[in-house]
Amino acid sequence: MKKTVRLQIVKPMDEDWEILGRVLHDIRYQTRQVLNKTIQLCWEYSNFSSEYKALHGDYPKNKEILHYTSMHGYAYNQLKEQYYYIQSGNCSQTVKRAVDKWKSDLKEILRGDRSIPSYKKDIPIDIVKDAVSLEHDEKNGNYIATLSLMSTAYRKEMERKSGQFRVLLHSGDNSKKTILKRLVQGEYQHTASQIVKKGKKWFLNLSYKFDVLQTPFQTERVMGVDMGVIYPIYMAFNYHDHLRYKIQGGEIERFRRQVESRKKALQDQGKYAGSGRVGHGTKTRIDPLEVIRDKIANFRETKNHHYSRYVVDMAEKHECATIQLEELKGIHQDDAFLKRWSYHDLQEKITYKAEEKGIQVIKVDPQKTSQRCHHCGNIDSNNRKEQASFLCTSCGMETNADFNAAKNISIPGIEQIIQTEMKS
Q: Given Cys at both, which of 102, 180, 228, 344 links 42, Cβ 3.0 to 4.6 Å?
């Protein structure tokens, strides 16, 4: 399985940011040129091939015309001397990226359904596997990457002894630290990656691969996960009548109140702000609100990692081969804050953590799962007159409403079952 983790480049360890920044900007500029030039060469050869076929009745052989067996080799040979800043392996990877894009889009381009690809200035820098090495500074607990970026010619032009840069990475939360630890220890293997710039910061999008664990789960066991306002996560199981786990939503609500209170105070202050917040105009006035937004994003990211790990741990503990999640559609319109809470991000984190364990994730339509009695199958809007409680109008079963919904979601083929029950 292949994954990518984004890591901020905090600073170069043996160089000034001014130098590294210049190198990254120069290489990104040439990366863009290589991408667009490769697409141009592909387009020109495509036109030549069409004309050749019209004259000779067959397409030309690459080896005879290009003197290379592939467009990748031909384009790289044409461009490597002209765009010499880029380390050779990275340049080859960039050419491959453009050629692969051309091949994947070619049919649609020829039909007129898609434009010829073009690359803008904010494109990522390619960096091959052999151009990245990782180390762990055990004394300080830091992770450091050594990046081979410069060609020999560019290195000499910059009067540098090495074309490599050692950079400090911001490892962030525990999940990223775990990934880096496993990469350093060899449990995971890093692959071709990219360097990107977002705002004023540079990031290493580090790609890696690992073997999916083949844990002997019981195939008939399914965990159902309901997502809601009172409980962000409520878990139940198809094989057990009473087993359940839940995550309380109190910490989200407390954080919500703190954020909304602070935001309102800042907005009120902005109306009569002194010179400290007038500055250059609107931007200075809204800077504190941007900080609030960053806090929300960081809090959400951290909690979603914790929640998703807990869900997968419980599925693994009970040997569930499958986790079924509700397909999210317009979730919880009654609470604006929780509506903005990234349930989609939470589901994505559950999915990739489950896949690492060899657990299948299936999304099901939640329609009627909150109104259906998991015990007798009775579907009635009157079964759930209150947000928190469920009382079946047919069999009289009384339980927590979120538990009942999670139980329904845990049933294999629940969508078809509900459709059949609705028809009858």
A: 102
- DSSP state, residue 372: B
Q: Give, in words, the CATH class of 218-248+309-423.
A: alpha beta
Q: Where in the chain is the domain with CATH 3.30.420.140?
A: 218-248+309-423
402 as an active site residue: the answer is yes
Q: Which of 106, 75, 114 is nearest to 92 (CA)?
A: 75
pLDDT tens digit sequence for 164-198: 999 999 987 777 888 999 999 998 999 999 999 99
Q: What angle do CA 342, 347, 349 make, to 5 degrees?
A: 95
Task: Please tell me which residue in 51, 108, 211, 326 is annotated as part of the active site.
Answer: 326
From 135, 402, 415, 421, the catalytic residue: 402
226 counts as catalytic: yes
360-364 and 244-247 beta bridge pairing = unpaired
Q: How confident is the model at residue 334 (pLDDT cuts 50, 70, 90)?
A: very low
Give residue 356's pLDDT band: very low, low, confident or very high (50, 70, 90).
confident
Task: Phi first, then psi: give them for residue 323, nearest 5 degrees.
Answer: -115, 125
Nearest to 292 by CA among 249, 344, 340: 340
What's the pTM value of the predicted model, to 2 decimals?
Answer: 0.62
Which of the residues 105, 108, 122, 226 is marked catalytic? 226
Residue 113 among the catalytic residues = no
**Which pair of tokens denotes residue 246?**
């839940």
DSSP string, 111-180: HTSSPPP---TTPPEEE-GGGEEEEEETTTTEEEEEEE-B-HHHHHHTT-S-SEEEEEEE--SHHHHHHH
Separation of alpha carbons 227 and 308, rounded Å: 12
Tell me the pLDDT band of 216, cut-offs 50, 70 and 90. low
